[in-house]
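User: What would this chain look like folded?
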Amino acid sequence: MDRVNAVHIVEDLKTGGLEKIIALIVTHLDKNKFDVKVWCLAKGGAVFDDLQNKDIDIEILGMKSHRNPLFYIKLIRKLKKNNIHIVHAHGFTATTVGRVAAILARTPAIICHMHSNYWWYSKKKRIIDRLLGYFTDKIVCCSRAVAKFVVNAEKINSNKVKVIYNGVDVDKFNSIKPETEKNAFIIGCIGSFFPHKGHRYLIEAARKIIDDYGSRVKFVLAGDGPLRESLEDYVKKLGVKQFFDFKGLVVNIEDLISSFDLVVLPSILYEGLGISLIEAMAAAKPVIGTNVGGIPEVIQDGENGLLVEPKDSNGLAKAILSIMNDKDKAITMGRRGKDIVQRKFSSQTMVRSIEELYSNLAKEK
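Assistant: Here's the prediction, encoded as structure tokens.
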């Protein structure tokens, strides 16, 4: 076997943490050892366009329904025609469709990549995922918290699970220049507007912070989702609209992060790892996150940031104020965070682990 033929299968490639990780993997894998493709089952998106511009072998397969047997036949034939050695699938739809097709195509190795836990899955989805787990060679989890959840939920041998932390391209954050003149302390929050992200509690904390700082503080929310309109209404209700800037989806996140003084992730139920925290740390920004999911694996409380309990707007406000009121603490936490990213959460570290996994699976098969 000269090169290992691997394909990443995903439903679409819009803008988000999962999409960023796929992009980093496929653009940094050793091309001398791996021939990598990306197949979007249904649609493309901003990350799809970016990868196309980078000459990555990527295409949209045009799936209309994951229940269509003709699509499975098409995918099975495509796997065989391309002599795929490894299927690496992401997200429930893709890990279901991709794994079923790979099993029927007798693809030598199958990887399911878990970017978060899935406590919200229906009973039917849990059964499907558990059954497919028996035919999966390795389940990659983005944190120890996710790995623990998967082992307990799927009742599988922990040897089948491998933790590979999400990584970021540290060089991108080394090149950005922070703004030198600002009239306000800027607190950033990056994440889709879904209930589990806890934006509501940051808005409530903001009300308390504004009472102390007034016009000297600003909150920037980057992302989009079904709760955007209700969150915009909530800042109006609390009388803090003028202190909030809803940016929507931001492609060049590095430039935005450079303008922040602090990054907050107020998730309330789960968080696979918290890629926005890692990006902020790569830019030497102090961070605050909640004590849920994989966030405690990123934030060393009191070292590179602060941990607070979920749904505690008072505790969140107190943590934010403690950093706002101590510039030296903020600088020190930022530096420590950057060191942690370089050692533990760099794209190089992540990709090396993926390459090692691919090579080992190829040898075993």
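The radius of gyration is 21 Å. If you want, I can go into more detail on any region.
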